[in-house]
Amino acid sequence: MRKFILLVFTALLFFAGCNNEKQIEYSTTEGGLMYFYHEKSSSELAPQDGNKLLIDVKYFNDKDSILFNSQEISPRFIMDFFPPATNGATINDAFAMMHEGDSMSFRINAYNFYLGAGQKEMLSKISKDEMLRFEIRLKKILSPEIVEKEIAEKEQELKDEEEYLLQDFLANNYPDIKPTKSGLYFIETREGEGPTMTKNNKVAIHYTATYINGEPIYSTYQKNDPLIFDVADPNVWPCLSEAVQYMNKGCKATIIAVSKLAAGERGDKTLKIAPRKTIIFDLELIAYK
């Protein structure tokens, strides 16, 4: 029991030490940058102009509330490095004094930081003497060529995965179907009547969209909120513009749209659709003019 109490007390002291920023005794550079080393590596590798920095970074306001955590965005958070023109107390000055493997705390003026980051909407919300605390670990210094190679390799992996999943789905569900010239797969499931749509039409459709694994994305039926668009509108996903041109009023169809015909090969952050995702739509053309 005595050992347990000692362990709990030690843990409380540890967390108190980690979270009480006031205990840190900062040093200050000639340019006015306040800094503290948590871990100083033996590496002599420092950022150079044009490098990409693989970092973990968090920053906090004066009340020690966290405002940003790179891990919530990506475990591989990469920033460009631009050496400061003069010694000062900016985020680039902070990066400039680090070496690969360093873990450091910095205090940086919030007004100057947001101004330099182009976040002018934040300037009216803070005082000019407010400070931010940054916790930065410089994990790796990368050349642009290495980053470009990694991106290309990742994109190829996603491309191969999308193609594999598509071919597997087609083999199991539509083994005899052929794509259109664009790569769209169109399967009419109910005949309509009247003229087939053209680029001159405006249409209203209901649809249910899912990923190729069946995971739901959205359905206009749920809120009785049909999608209305001009067929020639360049902002409409190509798969929808093309599909309705094979349809007439009352027609229903299933379409299989590879990423380049849907949210795009890079996905859509607004719609929370990841890169290289094939999407399946069940469409119904309900009106046109």
Describe this structure in words.
By secondary structure, the chain is of the alpha+beta class. It has two domains: 19-142, Chitinase A, domain 3; 146-288, Roll (Chitinase A, domain 3). Helix content is 24%, strand content 29%. The chain contains five helices and 13 strands. It has helices spanning 2-19, 91-96, 110-116, 144-173, 238-244; strands spanning 27-28, 34-39, 52-60, 66-69, 77-80, 103-109, 131-142, 185-190, 202-211, 216-219, 227-230, 252-257, 279-288. The strands form two sheets. Strands 1, 2, 3, 4, 5, 6 and 7 form a seven-stranded antiparallel β-sheet that branches. Strands 8, 9, 10, 11, 12 and 13 form a six-stranded antiparallel β-sheet that branches. A hairpin with a 5-residue loop joins strand 3 and strand 4. The longest helix has 30 residues, at 144-173. It is elongated. The protein starts with a helix and ends with a strand. Mean pLDDT is 89; it is low at 1-20.
